Amino acid sequence: MSHLFALLLAAFAWAPPAQAVPAHANPAQVASIKAGHHDCPHCVLAGADLSNTCVKKGDLTGADFDRADLTLMCMSYANFTNASFRDTNLSGANLAHSDLDGADFTGANLTITSFKGTDLRKAKGLTQAQLDTACGDKKTVAPAGLKVPVCS
């Protein structure tokens, strides 16, 4: 129980690294996602607060989520091919069964992020330290040399 509590504290204490470039989310695209539209290929959502929103089964190919807050976001079964999640807070997000080929997770917070049934072999920027705070299942495929703990 104390391990879970520590992960929760880390998730909510996390802040993205200071950036020289300000967030540049497209307000209309952010509003579209918040309105429940799940398809937004190549959207610019950098720096946006999309916590507690849902894009389940959506097409977000090539979307830019850099430095965004995606806490508790429902993202399962969606297409995030070549999306960028650099320095993004994905705490508690559900990426189960999503397509993450070419997605960049450099510096992302993956605390309690679910990768159940997800193939991460072609994802970029993942470290063992990040994956140690996330979880998957027996169908989750980690990149070479890395492992994903099983969700409890």
Note down, in words, how this protein is organized:
The protein is mainly α. The protein has a domain of 104 residues: E3 ubiquitin-protein ligase SopA (Pectate Lyase C-like, 3 Solenoid), CATH 2.160.20.80. Helix content is 16%, strand content 0%. The chain contains three helices and no strands. The radius of gyration is 14 Å and the shape is globular. The N terminus is likely disordered.
Give a short synopsis of this structure:
The chain is mainly alpha-helical and about 150 residues long. It is about 15% helix and about 0% strand.
Write the layout of secondary structure elements.
Blueprint: H1 2-13, H2 27-34, H3 128-132
